[in-house]
Amino acid sequence: MYINREKNEEYGVMVIPLDNGAIEEASIGVQQLQMAGIPSRMMNEQLAGSILTASALELGFRFLILIGKDEVSMSKVTFKDLFEQSELLIPLDKAIYLIEKIYPPENFT
């Protein structure tokens, strides 16, 4: 998990497949995030939205990526920033860009 050295906050990405048809895409998403150096893990949780958000925050995750059959058909993900309380439907590479824009990798030059 990343540490924001200025505020000593932990953060990372929780990837959640919304249905069985999205598990493979969610797994690929986790791999792409990790290849970009972004700590992430897949959670196969079927929780209500507010409970899921609270669970993610308690575990130290700032970002959620939700992938369901609709997102798969559009080659997009639902990207949630829990600190900013924002939600976007965007391609995964754009989500990676937004995360790196907020928290640049340590060896970023």
Feature tags:
109 residues; alpha/beta; five-stranded mixed β-sheet; two-stranded antiparallel ribbon; 4 helices; 27% strand; globular; disordered N terminus
What does this protein look like?
With about 110 residues, the protein is α/β, with parallel strands linked by helices. The protein has four helices and seven strands, in the order βββαβαβαββα. β1 and β2 form a beta hairpin. The radius of gyration is 13 Å and the shape is globular.
Helix segment tally: 4
Helix and strand composition category: alpha/beta
Major β-sheet, in short? 5 strands, mixed
CA-to-CA gap between the ends? 21 Å
> Residue-averaged pLDDT, rounded?
82
Strand order in space, largest sheet: 4-3-5-6-7
Succession of helices and strands: EEEHEHEHEEH
Strand content: 25-35%
- Low-confidence region ranges: 1-9
General shape: globular
How many extended strands? 7
Oligomer: single chain
If you compute it from the alpha carbons, what radius of gyration comes out, rounded to the nearest whole angstrom? 13 Å
